[in-house]
Amino acid sequence: MSETRTPEKAGDIPAVEIAGMHKWFGDFHVLRDINLTVGRGERIVVCGPSGSGKSTMIRCINRLEDYQQGRVVVDGVLLTNDLKSIDEVRREVGMVFQHFNLFPHLTVMENLTLAPIWVRKMPKKKAEEVALHYLERVRIPEQANKYPGQLSGGQQQRVAIARALCMSPKIMLFDEPTSALDPEMVKEVLETMVELAESGMTMLVVTHEMGFARQVADRIVFMDEGQIVEVNVPAEFFAHPKHERTKLFLSQILN
Amino acid sequence: MRPQAFVRTEPVPAMPPPASGRGVTGWLRENLFSGPLNIVLTLLSLLVLWWIVPPLLNFLIFDAVWVGEDRAACIVTPDRPRVGACWAFVAERINFFIYGFYPVNERWRVDTFFALLAIGIVWLLATWAPNKRVAAVYFFIVLPIVSIMLLLGFAPLRLSYVPTSLWGGILVTVVVSAVGIVFSLPLGVVLALGRRSRMPAVRLFSIIFIEFVRGVPLITVLFMASVMLPLFVPEAWSPDKLLRALVGVALFAAAYMAEVVRAGLQAIPRGQYEGAQALGLSYWKMMGLIILPQALRITIPNIVNSNIALFKDTTLVFIVGIFDFLRTIEAARIDPKWATPVTSTTGYAFAALFYFICCFMMSRYARGVERRLETGHKR
Question: Would you call A64 and B277 a contact, using CB atoms and an 8 Å cutoff?
C-alpha cells in the first residue's frame, strides 16, 4: 500500500490526477502537457478526431502505456516503472476495450472469475456468485457457460464490462466501447454504461457517441493533436464551444 | 425504366442443397478425366503405380519367406527362383531389435515400461480420457521415476542393475525420443519466452542458445556431448553415455521447439495481453493462464511436426556408439548366419515400416487436433 493514502484523507484524493504529462512514440510527440483531475464519482467523456491521443491518454491511467514526463496519480498511487505500483493501480482500475479482448479459450464464467480468483485470491465459489451477479446486471446470465465466440458483439462487450466489474474497481476506463459494434448492438452496450454511471462509478469514456456524452457526462474533454483543447460541462460544450477546433469538430459530427 | 420497389410477402423456407453426386462415373469424370492434361496425368500416375506397387507387394508379401531357421530358408534355389523379404530373419531377431542386449530374464521390465508409457500417452492425448491433470502428473512425474527404477534397476525392489550400455533397439529409440519430446517442450517454452523478454540478459542468452544450437548439426552436438565432455570432466564425474546423448538431444530439440512456440506466441493478438494486464494479472499468470494455452493450442500441429523430425533424428545416436533400433538392424543384417541377398533389404524394410507407423500415428494425431480446433470455438 502506498504511504500517501491514509483513511482520513481518502475523501480528498482525486480518483485520477494527471499533471504536466508528456508522451512520445519514438520521435513523435503524442501527448503534450496533459493536465486533468477526475474527482470521485465523476463521469468524463473524452472525444476528438482520430489520432488525437484520446485512447493513449486513458491507457496511461492503467499503465498500458508509459509516459516520459509529468505524473499520473491514480487513487493516491503515483504510477512509476515500479511493478508494485502498476499492479496496485491495475487491481483498482477496470478497462473495457474496443475489441472486447475476451479470452476466447475460456467460457464467459471463466473469463469473469479468472482475475478475482488469481489476483484477488477469492474462493472459486464466491467468485462465481459475484460473476453471476454482474452477468445479471448486464442481463446475460443465461450465457455463462458459452464461449465468447458464440456471442454477438454486443453481448461480448457486456461480458467485458461485467468482467471488469467483477474486480470491484474504483475507476472504469472505456476505450471506444461501441466503435466495433453493429449499429443494432450499440444501444444495449450504452444502456449498460448509463446504468453503471447511475450507480456512481467513476468513469472515463473515450467515445464518439455524443448522445451518451450529453446524457451521462459531468464534463467533456475535447482533444486534438495530443493536447487537451477544451474541457466543459456538456450543456456548454455543445451549445457554446469556445475553441475554433471544437466548433469545427462539432459542426462535422452533429450536422 | 421506373425504379422497382419490392416487399416480401412470403418467407422463403430453408431447403436442403441440391444433390451433387452423379455416381462413380461422374466422380471419375470430374476428378480424373476432366481435361486432356488431367487425362495424361491420370494415365502417368497409373503407370507409376503399376511399376511400383506389384513388385513391392511381391517382395513384401507374396514371395516373402515367413518361417525358417537360418539363411537356408531365404536363399535362391532352383525350385524357388524368386525370394522376397526374409521375414524369418526378422522373426528370429525381433527380441534383439526390441531389447538390444538387455538381459533376457529382465526383459519383462522393458515390457512393463512400454505398457506404462502407452497408458500415459493415451491418457494424456485421447479426448475421451478423464482427469487430464492426474494424467499430466502421472506422465511427467510418476512415469519418469518409475521408468528409471524399472529400466536401470532399483535394489530395494530387487530389481538388479542393468547398465545403459546393455540397452538397445526399440527401447533406446523410444527412451531417447520420449525424453527429447518431453523435455524439449517446457525448455522450448522457457526459451521462447526468454527470447521475447524485456530483460536484455535473458533475451541475449536465449537468442545465443537458440541460434547456436540451430546452427550446429545434431551429430556435432552428440559428438560434443560424448567425446569432448569427458576431456574436460574427470572420469568419475563423467555422466553415463546414454545420459549425455539424452541431454544433447533434449537441448537440441528445445532450440527448435522454442522457435515453434515463438511463432505461436506471435500469433496471439496484442489485445489478449492488454486484456490480461488490465485485469491486474502478473506476467507469469498472464502467460500461464491466457497466452500460452492459446499459443500452444494453435501450435500443436507444428509441435508434432518437430517431434516427428526428432523421432527420426534419434537414429543419429548410433554415431556415438549407442545401440538404437536402426543400429541393431545394422548389426544383425551382417550376421553370417543370415547372410542372403535379401537380408539387408528386409532389415531396412522392417525399420522403414516401424518408423513409418510411429510417424504416421503422430501425424494423424496432429491432423485430428487441427480438425477439432477448426470446429471448436473461434475468436
Answer: yes
Find chain A residues with C-beta within 8 A of B274's C-beta: 64, 97, 101
Q: How far is B8 from chain A (nearest CA, A)?
A: 22
Q: What is the CATH architecture of B89-373?
A: Orthogonal Bundle (1.10)
Distances (CA, A) of B2 to B5, B59: 9, 79
Provide the 3-class DSSP secondary structure of residue B200: helix
Say if residues A229 and A243 touch (Cβ distance below 8 Å).
yes
Angstrom distance (rounded) from CA A146 to CA A140: 11
User: B377–A148: do the CB atoms touch at under 8 Å?
Assistant: yes
Q: Are B294 and A104 in contact (CB under 8 A)?
A: yes
Confirm or reject contact between B270 and chain A (CB < 8 A). Answer: no
The Cβ of residue B55 has, within 10 Å, a number of other Cβ atoms equal to 12
What average pLDDT score do residues B17-30 get? 74
- Spatial contact of A109 and A145, defined as CB atoms under 8 Å apart: yes
Taking the C-alpha atoms of residue A218 and residue A15, their distance in angstroms, rounded to an integer, is: 14
* CB contacts, 8 Å: B297 with chain A: 105
Each residue's pLDDT tens digit, B358-370: 999 999 998 888 7
Burial class (CB in 10 A: 0-12, 13-18, 19+), A155: buried
What's the first-to-final CA gap in chain B, in angstroms?
A: 46
- Structure-block grid coordinates of residue A238: 455543445
Q: CA A41 to CA A37: how far, in whole Å?
A: 12
B176 contacts B314 by C-beta, under 8 angstroms: yes
d(C-alpha B129, C-alpha B318), whole Å: 37
- Among the partner-chain residues B277, B289, B294, the one whose CB lies closest to the CB of A118 is B289
Percent of chain B with pLDDT over 90: 47
Residue B362: in which H helix or E strand, if any? helix B343-375
pLDDT at B276: 95
Q: Rounded to an integer, what distance in angstroms lies between the CA atom of residue A65 and that of residue B79?
A: 86
Cα B237 from Cα B246, distance rounded (Å): 17
Per-residue model confidence (pLDDT) at position A224 = 93
Eight-state DSSP code of residue A72: E
B373-378, Cβ contacts within 8 angstroms, sequence gap of 24 or more: B373/B297, B373/B298, B373/B300, B377/A104, B377/A105, B377/A147, B377/A148, B377/A149, B377/A150, B378/A104, B378/A149
Q: Domain map of chain B by residue range? A: 29-59, 89-373
Q: Which position has the higher pLDDT, B52 or B379?
A: B52
pLDDT the model gives residue B22: 66
Cβ of residue B288 closer than 8 Å to a chain A Cβ: no
Are A147 and A107 a contacting pair, CB within 8 Å? Answer: yes
**Cα(B23)–Cα(B25) distance, integer angstroms:** 6
pLDDT in tens, B106-143: 899 999 999 999 999 999 888 888 888 899 899 988 99
Amino acid letter, B370? E
Q: How far is CA B23 from CA A36, A73, B16, B33, B225, in A?
A: 74, 74, 19, 15, 61
| Separation of alpha carbons A177 and A94, rounded Å | 13
- Closest residue on chain B to A65 (Cα): B274
